[in-house]
Amino acid sequence: MKTILVIGNGMVGYKFCEKFVAQATASEFKLTVFGEEPRPAYDRVHLSEYFGDQDAERLSMAPRSWYEENGVELITNERVTDIHRANKTITTISDATYSYDYLVLATGSSAFVPPIPGVEKEGVFVYRTIEDLDATLAYAAKLKAEGGTKKAAILGGGLLGLEAGKAILDMDLEAAVVEFAPRLMPRQLDGDASKVLQGKLEDLGIDILLNKGTQQIVGEGAISGMDFGNGDVLDVGMLLVSAGIRPRDELAKTCGLEVGTRGGIVVTNDMKTSDEAIFAIGECALLNQMIYGLVAPGYDMAGVAVAQIMEEEAMMPTAIDMSTKLKLSGIDVASFGDALNEKSEGESIVYENKFQGIYKKIIVSNDGKSLLGGILVGDASDYNMLHQIYLNGMAIPENPEDLILGSRGGESASMGSVLDLPDAAVVCSCESITKGQICCKVEEGIDNLKDLAADTKATTGCGGCKPMVTDILNESLKASGKVVKETICEHFDYSRQELFDLITMKGYTSYDEVLDGHGKGNGCEICKPALASLFASIYNETANKQEVIQDSNDRFLANIQRNGTYSVVPRVAGGEITPKQLIAIGEIAAKYDLYTKITGGQRIDMFGARLDELPKIWKDLIEEGFESGHAYGKSLRTVKSCVGSTWCRYGMDESVSFAIEVENRYKGIRSPHKFKGGVSGCIRECAEARCKDFGMIAVDGGWNLYVAGNGGANPKHAELLAEQIDNETVVKYIDRFLMYYIKTALPLQRTAAWLDKLEGGIEYLKDVVINDSLGICEDLDKEMAGLINTYKCEWKEAIENIEIQNRYSHFVNSDEIDKNLNFVPLREQKMPELWEA
Amino acid sequence: MSAILEKYFTTEVDNVKVWFKAAPVAKFPENGGACVKYKDKQIAVFNFTREGKWYACQNLCPHKMEMVLSRGMIGDDCGTPKVACPLHKKTFSLDSGENLNGDLDAIAVYPVKIEDGFVFLGFAE
Ligand code: SRM
Ligand SMILES: Cc1cc2nc3c(=O)[nH]c(=O)nc-3n(C[C@H](O)[C@H](O)[C@H](O)COP(=O)(O)OP(=O)(O)OC[C@H]3O[C@@H](n4cnc5c(N)ncnc54)[C@H](O)[C@@H]3O)c2cc1C
Ligand code: SF4
Ligand code: FES
Fold it and tell me: Is A261 on the interface with B (CB under 8 A)?
């Protein structure tokens, strides 16, 4: 049996193991891996997500048990200190010696820290490992606690630096990115693209300082500023250095392997170093005089090294793709191919829209036939397709500008269908999965993304290819005559709309009946709440009736909070509240020691109620005339109002009165997702009605009615459904719009996403609810009236029923309360203890 | 944090030393769960009526160490009975305790028996 030792358990070292164990001949080798870090390999690409949840586990590439199960010996927390090529052994920091037949160096790289005087000061960090992030977080917390400067700088305006900038911002510090070059992402973007990007980053709140060479880091012990020379000093409390990477070639150097003049272990395209028995892969390897600082080429290198050891043919390709997409939420930036036209083999076409902050540039070959590269800022939705056209040398439209402008007139779509891609097109570069492989899997019977990902690993790396893989999957399913059906989960082969019809037609009244009649298995957390929502929409039954199929929040009629306590939100229709009601809420909150906050929905949220306290609190509230605010339900939340003509000098109509009327009309109605309304008294739009699922704005001659907007993760302005209509007509149209949505949307699909998928869009919707083109308006009106007339407050129902109240004890066999609840003081109030990492 | 986790470990029927009489069957919702206190432990007990079976596991979700699993929804994943945590929907097998949609450590599961209309939980101590 031959022995393979891998030094380095990073992303590429792990990929080597994964590709190795997949080989039939793996059992003829013994594989041992050394990692210097304390934990098994994790996903460095998504490292920034750690700032959000500090969940190291979520980043893990594979748990320790994976190595055990696959017979790979993993030794972490153990740095390899020497390689003795003469007798083919290595030694580690704890003086253990191991011998090898093959040695694989996957030592990665370390963050490059430029030799600026003072850079060793406290408060200067790099951005490479989980430990780096922990240290950064701890220091950020200290800065905030001390109340001094809250500014942190990032040295380097490359891909990583910008990501770091956003992370700093998310830590509630002020962020400034300091770049030596005259533009951001100098290796990927040109000056104009950089300007557009800079605008976007500044809008986010990140300061951008270009053309700045840092002469010195100043501060007593800890950093207090950066000196750019000539009296130009930036005060900062912390610095994240992101100035590039240095390959970790120190082991290779001391054992006499050939290394590049500027670092990196020299390899040929079979991934062998100057010693036949030693391979180098990933960010430590210098191939074609280049260090490839991306995972995709590293993964390919791992594959080649495995194959070489198994004595199979495999080589790295001569051209290695370095295209990149920035993964900053809300900012689209991508660059591919020869984006800067450095080879001067083509000419550029540029589209720039300063109003919308969009910049697109493509480089087209001199003969106008192929795409050589490009840059997209502000809108990178076409990145995947353009990238594929470039990679595969596909034909481009006669007017190449169509690629960035879309085809204007004419029949043909500018981009073509994903099925036009050649079979060899690598769609998922992290896992090297081609379009052909995906189509093959569909032929073999795979018909959903989850199975496809499990089978091929496509989309499981950086995830950037997900939209395209989904398209290919769906298009090939369609092409092979299979209907792409949006079934709700493994337990039902039906869509939500089909289940809606089944329940109404057959008159089913319980989840079990539907599951017995039309499903399989015992249900899950997806189909149960989906059906609960249907029962509610059809019979207006409250969440109390079938409590065990309700989503966790509905089951207890309250939103669960971080520590398992709940929040309490009474309805405050239209945001109008009397002084007496305010006092009552204050008294009740004080009585139960609840944290109170004004919500973004114009009402008051009381947090920190124990499960057993919920019925008592609600009893008190109901006695004061309050009712449930359904803050927990997929149902009407609030109808936000502005003060309107009652007080405002510009008001055209009584927005508060109208908001209260519609909020009371739709309260309690369950729907596929939550829905919200807004009413503004004039076009100044203080109620933000156009960010809501339905919104009214008073204009001369009535109301303009807008539908299908939302804030949240993907903000979308509502679209105009009708103009200058009176109150009665507004209500009629909303009734129909909502009912139509309730009957046809997918589970957890908000109105905007629903309208987006509705063929024909807003014009079609107008036809249905205004012109009654489907002839269903009478039904919709009736169904809506049925829901409105059967409203009852489910909290009132709960406190009047002892059986329902019994659901609210923490223990079934004891009246004790949960002793694990710990609160800490917060300003004048309290909050749950923070979660540990 | 880990101190609280260490209180819980999977108990096989063969190792049961104490059958703890928890509460009458009627106290547990059909196809749902409730929490039982045993000494300083919190145990989530599920009356999986559709399967005609009972399951018990630690109430503590290993994801964020909150005592919430009894309030989670039950169901099955390709035939494996499971509970979904109400906080972030991590799911755990009620048979083995294994985390079905992630890499969290398995949760401890305990044997349950029903006698004379009462629910009994098996503990090794
Ligand atoms: C309390 C509140 C924040 C605050 O302190 O102001 C809040 C808190 C929560 N929001 Fe919100 N949202 C609150 C206003 C908003 C708003 C602002 C608004 O309504 O004008 C928005 C954007 C507008 C919109 O929805 O279009 C908003 C967009 C979201 C989203 C994203 C929805 C989307 O379509 O992208 C979620 C996630 C979801 O619903 O799936 C969410 C989910 C949540 C949940 C329910 C998350 C959860 O399951 O625990 C939070 C718990 C509420 C609780 O415990 O009571 N919340 N949330 C606000 C309660 C308003 C109220 O009185 O009911
Ligand atoms: C914040 C961030 C964001 C990124 N984003 C992207 C992105 O969007 N797209 C992309 O393609 N790439 C991205 N990258 C780069 C990507 O993470 C790297 O290309 C990849 O991790 C390289 O893998 P590797 O295994 O070669 O090196 P590493 O992941 O660095 O692993 C090397 C491992 O070897 C260990 N080691 C070194 N020497 C020894 C020794 N002597 N003994 C034992 N162990 C040793 C190290 O401790 C380390 O754990 C990003 C990187 C960072 C830091
Ligand atoms: S934005 Fe909404 S969901 Fe997110 S943390 Fe704030 S309240 Fe919670
Ligand atoms: S606490 Fe249970 S899933 Fe997060």
Answer: no
Same domain, A33 and A143: no
Locate A107 and state its tokens.
């030592």
**Of the candidates A121, A166, A172, which has an alpha carbon nearest to the alpha carbon of residue A143?**
A172
Kindly state whether residues A134 and A147 are assigned to the same domain: yes
Q: Which residues in chain B are closer than 8 Å to A562, comparing Cβ atoms? A: 64, 66, 87
- Is the Cβ pair B37, A528 closer than 8 Å? no
Residues sharing a CB contact under 8 Å with residue A68, sequence separation 6 or more, in sequence order: none
Contact B85, B75 (CB under 8 A): no
* A650 and A612 in a common domain: no
- The CB density around residue A93, as the number of other CB atoms within 10 Å, is 13
**CATH number attached to the domain at B2-123:** 2.102.10.10
Does B82 contact A at CB distance below 8 Å?
yes
- Residues from chain A that touch B77, judged by Cβ atoms under 8 A, are 490, 524
Local structure of A712: helix, strand or coil: coil
Let me know if residue A784 belongs to a domain.
yes
Residue A466 belongs to what domain range?
A: 421-483
Higher pLDDT, A48 or A463: A48
Residue A368 lies in a domain: no
Sheet of A595-598: strand order equals A559-560, A566-568, A604-609, A595-598
Of A309, A336, A356, which marks where a domain is finished? A309
Please check whether residues A729 and A665 belong to one and the same domain: yes
CATH at A80: 3.50.50.60
Tell me: do A695 and A593 sit in the same domain: no
Match 């091929």 to its residue by tokens.
A456
- Classify the phi-psi angles of A681: left when phi > 0, otherwise alpha if psi is within -120 to 50, otherwise beta: alpha
- Domain-by-domain residue ranges, chain B? 2-123
DSSP A544: T
Q: In A, which residues are within 8 Å of B45 by CB distance?
A: 812
A170 in the same domain as A63: no
What pLDDT sits at residue A484? 64
CATH code, A459: 1.10.10.1100
Q: Which of A201, A224, A243 is the last residue of a domain?
A: A243
Q: What is the ipTM for the molecules in this complex?
A: 0.72
Total number of domains in chain A: 6
* Distance from the first to the final alpha carbon of chain A: 42
Instruction: Flag the least confident range among A49-58, A209-218, A729-738.
Output: A49-58
Kindly provide the b/e burial profile for residues A679-688, where b requires at least 16 CB atoms within 10 angstroms of the residue's own CB: bbbbeeebbb
Tell me, in angstroms, the distance from the centre of ligand 4 to residue B65's CA.
7
Q: What is the 3-state secondary structure (H, E, C) of A256-287?
A: CCCECCCCCEECCCCCECCCCCEEECHHHEEE
Same domain, A793 and A823: no
The token duo for A595 is 């944290």
> Does the beta carbon of A807 lie under 8 angstroms from any beta carbon of chain B?
yes
Element (H, E) at A580: helix A579-591
Categorize the per-residue pLDDT at A410 as very low, low, confident or very high, splitting at 50, 70 and 90: very low
Q: Which residue has the tokens 């909050």?
A: A831
Read off the CATH number of the domain in which A566 is found. Answer: 3.90.480.10
Q: Is the predicted pLDDT of residue B41 greater than 60, yes or no?
A: yes
The A89-92 sheet, strands edge to edge: A80-84, A89-92, A97-99
Q: Is the pLDDT of residue A483 over 70?
A: no
Q: What is the pLDDT of residue A448?
A: 82
Q: Is A563 on the interface with B (CB under 8 A)?
A: yes
Find the A294 Cα to ligand 2 centroid distance in Å: 9
- Rounded mean pLDDT, A221-229: 94
Q: Are residues A780 and A688 in the same domain?
A: yes
Ligand number nearest CA of A285 is 2
For the segment A293-333, what is each residue's pLDDT rounded down to a tens digit? 999 899 999 999 999 999 998 999 888 888 888 877 678 89
